[in-house]
Amino acid sequence: MTRLSSLDSVARLVAAAPREACRAVGFERAMLSHIRGDRVVFASVSFEADPIMAADFARLARAVRPRLDRCAPEHEAVVRQMPVLVRDAQTATGLFRPLTHVARTTSYVCAPIVRDGHTVGLLHADYFGTARDLDELDRELLWTFATGIGWAMDDIAGRGQRRGHGDGGHDGMTDDVPVEARMGGAELDGELSGAPGRLATMTARELEVLQLMSEGASNAAIGEALVISQATVKSHVRHILRKLGAANRTEAVSLFLAGRRRTTAV
């Protein structure tokens, strides 16, 4: 917390906080998100053991911006301003399935970041690739760390105001964050801008498959839901990746969700 408080902007704190949570508290992965109205908006992630997985997750998380009413644990953390321990994340109900599926998390802790009585962000953390399950001590440790982040934000913002600079965001966070393990904003925006047009080239069946992919369904589950063979599912997935210009399923889902969001907004 001393290192975070010594930073010169809230943006730098947001970028560094997940890494410090892992190093100081002992988690293997951590993620920080903004709360913007009724949306959870990805900000930064740290997973030093696998930067490629972190980048894939960041790519999807930046695109989806799930609503709080689709994320029961996060909604509870925001409203009650209390940490939530989620066990059996792959089978539990009320979770935002695309992100939990891509993260392959088995359990995680979600803690609120509070400023001036308002929840401005969330800090998630888990272990990955080990047999260790999270417990109540992990929940309390992450909550303590998230509380410290709120205090550090106040301290940095206060110093900035005394120097005549702004706070870095009306909601207590910042829009322009130098994020670890993320795709560049301009590059990603350009890549997603063509998503609605690409989706128009999909057949009805391909859109059904893509919708189930976005919900975290496996090829076997998709085949069962649509009453088709796994070989047919794989064929549809290949066509979807080609039409979207996506390198893998994660990128395809990211483009699909972002394109659908843009179409809805229009």
- Quickly count the helices: 12
Tally of distinct domains: 2
CATH hierarchy: architecture of the largest domain: 2-Layer Sandwich
- Straight-line distance between termini: 43 Å
Principal-axis shape equals elongated
Give the % helix: 40-55%
Runs in which pLDDT lies below 50 for 5 or more consecutive residues are 165-171, 174-194
Order of helices and strands: HHEEHHEHEEHHHHHHH
Proportion of residues in β-strands = 5-15%
Mean pLDDT: 82
Using the CA coordinates, give the radius of gyration.
19 Å
The major pleated sheet works out as: 5 strands, antiparallel
> Class by helix and strand content?
alpha+beta
How would you sum up this structure, described in words?
- The protein has helices at residues 2-5, 10-25, 51-64, 72-80, 97-103, 136-162, 185-192, 195-199, 204-214, 219-226, 230-244, 249-265, and strands at residues 29-36, 39-46, 84-86, 108-115, 118-126.
- With 266 residues, it is α+β, with helices and mostly antiparallel strands.
- It has 2 domains: 2-162, GAF domain (Beta-Lactamase, 2-Layer Sandwich); 185-265, 3-Layer(aba) Sandwich (Rossmann fold).
- The chain has a 5-stranded antiparallel beta sheet with strand order 2-1-5-4-3, sandwiched between helices.
- Strand 4 and strand 5 form a beta hairpin.
- The longest helix is centred in the middle third of the chain and has 27 residues, at 136-162.
